[in-house]
Write a structure and sequence with these properties.
Blueprint: H1 8-31, H2 38-51, E1 55-56, E2 68-72, E3 75-77, E4 92-101, E5 104-113, H3 119-135, H4 145-157, E6 162-163, E7 169-171, E8 178-182, E9 199-202, E10 205-207, E11 213-215, E12 222-224, E13 230-232, E14 235-239, E15 244-246
Antiparallel strand pairs: 1-4, 2-4, 3-12, 4-5, 6-10, 7-8, 7-9, 9-14, 10-13, 11-12, 14-15
Helix pairs in contact: 1-2, 3-4
């Protein structure tokens, strides 16, 4: 498995890609409200990305028809925006996006509530988010990749949640998906040793019920088999000797 270690110049470009994406997602989350179509969410997100002189990573990737993956309620990832899909009070929506800045990629996701949401939905969103931070405690030189996986899994499963097994995180750089694959569920082996300069897209995908998922007839949207709510939280992370640097968080 060839995992790239980025140069100082490459890291600077990825920092900027991440800074832009973090701001886009932060601003886009603030726009989410009942009565909004998922197509409008995508339109706003793409406009924001292009306003920074960046290219949306997802548009046309593998044939995906939009710039923002907009996944609602039991949709885990890869929801296709639609003018007929209207967000309503109580929904939760996952926004997954990527930008390309001067040839370098950043990838991140957030799950937010639409209007007033249930305590159960709110807890799922927060636990999924916190599991990311539990995992990246091990994103430092000398640790092993699956220490990240196991920490994410253990935190989510302590709440009785199902950690999705059919979808994983990944390395990232000039390509959206690079080695290594990063599972969010427990692994028996330690995985590769981590070195300073590796860049990883770490993305817990979690269901309130079981972990099993299936793909809809659109060949993209992944939903929970039991129709339980799902949440997604992701950032592009730089491995350093002293710990993780999150590249895709907005400054505020």
């Amino acid at each position: 498995m060839a995992v790239s270690v980025k140069s100082h110049r490459e890291i600077e470009l990825m920092r900027e890609a991440g800074r832009i994406l973090g701001k886009v997602l932060n601003d886009l989350c603030k726009e989410i409200k009942p009565g909004m179509s998922t197509w409008r969410v995508n339109q706003l997100g793409e406009d924001m990305i292009r306003s920074f002189g960046c290219v949306p990573s997802f548009l046309g990737y593998g044939g995906y028809p939009a710039s923002i993956c907009v996944s609602v309620n039991d949709e885990v990832v890869h929801g296709i925006p639609s003018k007929s899909r209207i967000l309503k009070n109580g929904d939760i929506v996952s926004l997954d996006a990527g930008v390309i800045y001067k040839g370098y990629q950043s990838d991140a996701a957030r799950t937010v509530g639409v209007g007033e949401i249930s305590k159960e939905a709110s807890q799922l969103i927060e636990v999924t988010r916190q599991s990311f931070f539990e995992g990246i405690k091990f994103a430092k030189e000398g640790c092993h990749l699956h220490e990240i996986s196991n920490a994410i899994a253990d935190y989510n499963e302590s709440y009785g949640y199902g950690v999705i097994r059919d979808l994983v995180g990944h390395g990232i750089g000039t390509q959206l998906h690079e080695e290594p694959q990063i599972p969010n569920f427990r692994q028996e082996r330690r995985g590769i040793r981590l070195y300073e300069g590796m860049t990883l897209a770490i993305e817990p995908m979690v269901a309130a019920g079981g972990w099993q998922v299936r793909c809809l007839d659109d060949d993209w949207t992944m939903v929970t088999v039991d129709h339980s709510l799902a949440a997604h939280y992701e950032n592009t992370v730089l491995v350093t000797k002293n710990g993780p640097e999150i590249l895709s968080l907005a400054e505020d």
